[in-house]
Amino acid sequence: MKAIQINNISLNYGKVSALKDISFEVECGELFGLIGPDGAGKTSLFRILTTLLLADSGTATVDGFDVVKNYKQIRNRVGYMPGRFSLYQDLTIEENLTFFATVFGTTIQENYHLIKDIYQQIEPFKKRRAGQLSGGMKQKLALSCALIHKPSVLFLDEPTTGVDPVSRKEFWDMLKNLKAQGITILVSTPYMDEASMCDRIAFIQNGNILSINSPEKIISDFPHKIYAVEAENNYEILLRLRQNPAVRSVFSFGDSLHVIFNDDSRHSALDAESPRARGLRVKPAMTNRNKGIAGQARNDGIQFKQIQPTIEDCFMSLLNE
To answer: Domains in the chain and their CATH numbers?
Structure first.
């Protein structure tokens, strides 16, 4: 039995299609990531799977229970942490946790072992009101409340949005520990760097699933050579490369540009044997062989080198297909 099974789910908000014939499965005990920008359809799918929203068509099951017919059973078996902090701001940490434990007919003491590693980090502040907590502490409290009834499946909707880098790392360490306890986790995020921490990921954009696989497999299957371009005026080069018919895609990535060509074999200026591919500075006028891209730079020097693709490169390439 699959922990989560989604079959041809579609959802419309008036004339806007939020989800378009979505289908995929999540294995029991898997840490599965739903990766995509804001407005891609992640939250709508989460709300359907947690029985808070009805799809227009298609079916879905969680732990073997249908999200429409067996919504009561699902609500007792899942934990849900929405993207927006939704606990009671005027209650203390301890009061919020006690409330959610009581709703599910349990106590903090009974399931303390589930939240111990997380709750111990905020327990010294248990008398502090939730509205006065930092972003990282709010996320830890929300996760504790989602776990207090011992769910078999955990839904986390963009749990690290707006959280500092240290708290983000701590949060993902906590998710790995929960996975080790056999809890199935479906997590959404707009951060591409978090994708590598999942067992498998699904890219979603405009309500469509673009690709599903392990992060390692997605990267290894990337079909194009990709080059990093660095110069003193990256923006000028970005505009010129986007006008070049030989360029398949180019976008900013930190302090460099990532470039993919329509036909790698035809662009000897970026061949692995050329000086630029080895990361050396080359002036545009040096050789005819190298003038193809560098000649557009209007710069006294430019750096080219072939690089390994990242998850973000794979996602951006899928958007252009």
So the answer is: 4-218 (3.40.50.300), 226-320 (no CATH)
